[in-house]
Amino acid sequence: MTAPRLFVFGPGYSASVFADLLRAEGWRVAATCRSEDRKAELEAQGIDAFLFDRGRPLKDARAALEGTTHLLVSIPPDAKGDPVLDQQARDLADLRTLEWAGYLSTTGVYGDTGGDWVSEAAWLKPTGERQKRRVEAERGWLGLYRQYGVPMHLFRLAGIYGPGRSAIDSVRDGTARRVDKPGQVFCRIHVADIAATLRASIARPTPGAVYNVADDLPSPSHEVVEHACRLLGVEPPPLVPFDQADLSPMAASFYADCRRVKNDRIKRQLGVALAYPDFRAGLEAQLAAGL
After folding, report:
1. Can you give the pTM of this predicted structure?
2. pLDDT, tens digit, 9 for 90 and up, residues 63-120
3. Keywords of this protein's UniProt record, alphabetized (predicted)?
4. CATH number among 3.40.50.720, 2.60.120.1440, 3.40.50.970, 3.10.580.10, domain 5-159+189-214+260-275
């Protein structure tokens, strides 16, 4: 029997961890990239690689996608829209071997709730341009399911962290900051729990479904940095009021929204048991693993 084949548009941090999980199970994996150097890197790992970018669709989409049973889209929309939808929608609609497809979105589509909890049934009220683009991309992917039967699932991810991309790493490299904005909380999710959620969805496919992927403990960012410093045995950086922090426009934009994200659905419908239900568990596990 031929092994299932995952095709990834945009093998970034989360998508790569997921792909590695499936490869360990014997899956075949293909992915897109934007440069010849990255293509060579992927191929050296045993991944079929294909060039793709805005203005550069797959050269031979039928050949690249042939045999694909599962699809993951991890490329964010740009100012023109979703590049995968805009350039490959027809090819995906014609892909008869496809059993499951996932789109990695963001909990930013909910906008600011003043700290209230939101479920997947909440109205989408994005506050920034990047989040508005995500809402449009979600609509496009769900439209591909409704119109052509592409078995799409949406995953709204909270703030992603894990080895190489955590408060432990930022404390070690000296970039960690403690910014205080009273009442502000952020939701997070460990990259391994994202991969586990996607895997659980493959086992229990429900095309058209939307899932929040977040841990159990929304928290202020400065508490995460404090815990990382405690684990590393170093003094935390000074606590700076938000209005004096002199953040970049991008960094400040993350403080524009405050919400708590419910994760009941992935537990109830997919049977997900989070390996890292809060940032403490995730950071402690990273340190224990020597990462």
Report:
1. 0.97
2. 999 999 999 999 999 999 999 999 999 999 999 999 999 999 999 999 999 999 999 9
3. NAD
4. 3.40.50.720
